[in-house]
Write a structure and sequence with these properties.
The chain contains nine helices and seven strands. With 247 residues, the chain is α/β, with parallel strands linked by helices. It has a seven-stranded parallel sheet, with helices on both faces. α4 runs parallel beside α6. The protein is globular, with a radius of gyration of 17 Å.
């Protein structure tokens, strides 16, 4: 394995938090494989930015909610082709709506992408990392998985489930030198928060002791720490990046 390129796989790495994570890990010396579901052009821009900075990167179209597709991807692109140093489960979707109006499809699609997706990716990554006897898995969860949020019962449930999944996997994989942690962003400046009106932004801002929304880079730095050798004695933890917005 030593001759293979040390690589981080970042799902949903073409924009927002995933993009910041991909760029940061590349600057830290890892080859980055990033996945996207749509907008290949955005993914290729990230790849070009990484290469322009002297790093190595590739982009792949992958629907993490498609279990067979994920299994095929790991078999065809990951297994015995790279040294899988880290998996960052960032890909996810939202389908917001109040409980009384939420459709079954809205529930299922979010749980499939945001919880089942990380499960399948982690399972396939763990099969490789166990043989390597080392690796890092970082799951991107959310403050709403800790606090709940009106209109997001599906998303909150998925992220809360991912926290429990993180803690269990950490116990199962620790003996093989694999750490599993989660990063829980609070309100971060992304496309989703950009759509909030000023009144809603103000209400959220009042709850944040640091009185600002975080940046994608704030989250990326936390992920980079958990992926690094400096975090070798940390596993099963949820690192909140929320400006003091405690649950």
């Amino acid at each position: 394995m030593s001759e293979l390129v040390r690589t981080a796989l970042v799902t949903g790495g073409s924009r927002g938090i995933g993009r910041a994570v991909a760029l940061t890990l590349a600057r830290n010396g890892l080859q980055v494989y990033l996945t996207y579901l749509s907008k290949a052009s955005e993914a290729e821009i990230v790849v070009e930015d990484i290469r322009a900075g002297g790093g190595k990167a590739k982009a792949f179209c992958l629907d993490v909610s498609d279990a067979q597709g994920v299994e095929d991807f790991f078999h065809n692109e990951i297994k015995e082709k790279i040294f899988l140093s880290a998996l960052v489960n960032n890909a996810g979707i939202t389908r917001d709506g109040l409980l009384l109006r939420m459709k079954n499809d809205d529930w299922d699609s979010v749980l499939n992408a945001d919880l089942r997706g990380p499960f399948v990716c982690s399972r396939e990554a763990a099969k490789i990392m166990v043989k390597q006897r080392q690796g890092r898995i970082v799951n991107i969860v959310s403050v709403v998985g800790q606090t709940g949020n009106a209109g997001q019962s599906n998303y909150s449930a998925a992220k809360a489930g991912l926290i429990g999944f993180t803690k269990t996997c950490a116990k199962e994989l620790a003996g093989r030198g694999i750490t599993v942690n989660a990063v829980a962003p609070g309100f971060i400046e992304t496309d989703m928060t950009a759509a909030l009106n000023e009144e809603t932004r103000g209400l959220y801002m009042e709850q944040i002791p640091l009185k600002r929304f975080g940046s994608a880079q704030d989250v990326a730095e936390a992920v980079a720490f958990l992926v690094s050798e400096r975090s070798g004695y940390i596993t099963g933890q949820v690192l909140a990046v929320n400006g003091g917005l405690y649950c």
